[in-house]
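haha ok so turns out i had the wrong file open the whole time. this is the CORRECT one, sorry everyone. sequence first:
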Amino acid sequence: MAIKIAKPISDFEVISPNATESAAEPAEASTLVANPDGLPTNVVQMHEKVERPEMLVGSTYKIKTPLSDHALYVTINDIVLNPQTPYEKRRPFEIFINSKNMDHFQWIVALTRIISAVFRKGGDVTFLVEELRSVFDPQGGYFKRGGKYTPSLVAEIGDAIDSHMRMIGMIRDEDLDEHQQKLIDQKRREFENHRHSASAVSDATGESTAFPPEARLCLKCQTKAVVLLDGCMTCLNCGDSKCG
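then structure:
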């Protein structure tokens, strides 16, 4: 179809059928610009303004200590961010602690509210585990099954949070390398061969343990598994070794 031009041409522009699509692409891409974490901006991250949904998924952990006749039940509820997408993940949202023993009611309520507030703040909240584990009871701690030392009831709560964060993938297990694992297995066999009985030794609580009774407490994994190997104090549980 011919078009008659009645006025002088002052400017011109080449228009192609794909011009509209190409112009729309930058606008769409602008909504998916990566944030500093390398994720698209439409991916929801945990922060204090994330509203609590009607239902949360969670887990309850039972804590039974020699300090009380009644157990503590630690419930940690998680929020599911970006559900049904490649960026779906669970993050702790709130924590509750319940027990028949009301002696520690005030500080337990205060602790749960503070921890829940830190959870909802977002970011790397794994530091809570070490902070709680570093609390020591002035009256002394106790040993759990397997010879692991627990310095306080607060540290026990930290262990429960650690277990939960490992379950949802926030904390990764630091596995021993092949050489360390092979060395530990070898030294365990040597100790077993020198024992009068191949059965496990019963500790003071009547629970069985695979570590020698003369083993010392490991300051890294809090387990009575440190023995003298080739002139070095070596932990048979985590592999930590120090030479004098």
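The helical segments are 19-30, 105-121, 127-133, 153-168, 178-194.
again sry for the mixup
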